From TrEMBL:
Protein name per the record: Nitronate monooxygenase
Keyword hit for Oxidoreductase: yes
InterPro entries: Aldolase_TIM, NMO
Keywords, alphabetical: Flavoprotein, FMN, Monooxygenase, Oxidoreductase
One Gene Ontology molecular-function label: nitronate monooxygenase activity
Length: 353
């Protein structure tokens, strides 16, 4: 099979320009190793893991693959520096960030030879992290699942490509070879996919929950601010509809209850949650209510994505869910996408008169 060589495959040392993103509760060792062994870049999600769980997940992933992989870190977590030391010590190839990491953290990772790829949602943020030394960025358009912005990939991607000279990986709405070929045509160095990888054989999301996703159409997601105060693209479920119609006080009481469960589960002290909250408050203009809601999100996602309780949980999803109707292995998925993208690129070349 012929392959595609891009700035991303060169930078990271993977075979294919396809990234599986760091989805909380979903991107664990099995999925990450499945992606890595199929020649893509798999990224472990650590925002929903304790430090010890992350340590164990990195070790487990290494037993399942000897290919490069990445770890997604919440840059605003109080133990982010400790997690970064772990990545360096364990020779993890890629550090991915949902929020822009501090300049010193980027420099430390780069000095140790770790490739730094933050996710961003606007050209100005891409410029900022590029000026701080980020090696590449993932840009997620509004179609994408989880926290998302208002601008579609078709417009956000070129705006970011025009703003920076580092490799740009396109995310939000990708699932097939046409999408990869289109992203490369824009000038991107590859695609990153969340929802598509959630719906694979290697994903550990309960089968009943995968079936809920597969049953959905293109218009069956909502961007809700009621989950944690920030725009979050999720499947339309009864719970989401009721959150959307609930008053702020009821939402806050439920959120505080969930924040307390998250604390018990992760063994975090209230002082750590408060310290994280204060750090978030300093770095953003969120209200206390939003900060309690932010601690609430992991519990709502866990109920759905790990425990399979779709009535109590929130199911983050991109709009692309409406076009998915199968559960391939990571290898079949990536091989199919790359082979089809190559066919499309050849067909485009043949259009020249
Ligand atoms: C179930 C789910 C959980 C997610 N969790 C995270 C997360 O913890 N951190 C993060 O940076 N992005 C998270 N995302 C966003 C994805 O990493 C990715 O950017 C997005 O899914 C891309 O859009 P797509 O779903 O159209 O492929 C999540 C997405 C989904 C669907």
């Amino acid at each position: 099979m012929s392959t595609l060589r891009t700035a991303l495959t060169e930078l990271v040392g993977v075979e294919h320009p396809v990234v599986q993103t760091g989805m909380g509760w979903v991107a664990g060792p099995r999925l990450v190793a499945g992606t890595a062994n199929a020649g893509g870049l798999g990224i472990l999600a650590s925002a929903t893991m304790t430090y010890e769980e992350l340590e164990a997940a990195v070790a487990k992933t290494k037993t399942l693959t000897d290919k490069p992989f990445g770890v997604n870190i919440r840059a605003d977590a109080t133990d982010a520096p400790q997690r970064i030391d772990l990545l360096i010590r364990e020779n993890v190839r890629v550090a991915s960030f949902a929020l822009a990491p501090k300049q010193e953290l980027i420099a430390k990772l780069k000095d140790a030879g770790v490739v730094v790829i933050p996710s961003i949602g606007a050209a100005k943020h891409a410029k900022k992290v590029a000026s701080w030394g980020a090696d590449a960025v993932i840009v997620q358009g509004g179609e994408g699942g989880g926290h998302t912005g208002p601008v579609a990939t078709t417009l956000l991607l070129p705006s970011v490509l025009d703003a920076v000279d580092i490799p740009v990986v396109a995310a939000g709405g990708f699932y097939d070879g046409r999408g990869l070929a289109a992203a490369l045509a824009y000038g991107a160095a590859g695609v990153a996919m969340g929802t598509r990888f959630l719906l694979t054989q290697e994903s550990t999301v309960p089968d009943s929950v995968k079936q809920e996703y597969l049953a959905r159409g293109l218009q069956d997601t909502t961007v809700s601010r009621k989950v944690d105060g920030m725009p979050h693209r999720v499947l339309n479920t009864e719970l989401v509809t009721s959150l959307e119609h609930s008053g702020n006080v009821r939402g806050l009481v439920a959120a505080a209850r969930n924040a307390s469960k998250f604390k018990a589960m992760t063994g975090m002290k209230w002082s750590t949650l408060v310290r994280d909250g204060l750090a978030m408050k300093k770095s953003s203009d969120r209200t206390w209510q939003q900060i309690i809601m932010a601690a609430n999100t992991p519990m709502l996602l866990k109920a759905g994505l790990v425990e399979g309780n779709t009535h109590a949980g929130v199911l983050a999803s991109g709009q692309v869910v409406g076009l998915l109707d199968d559960l391939p292995t990571c290898k079949d998925l990536i091989d199919g996408i790359v082979a089809d993208a190559i066919k499309r690129i050849d067909a485009l070349g043949a259009l020249r008169a």
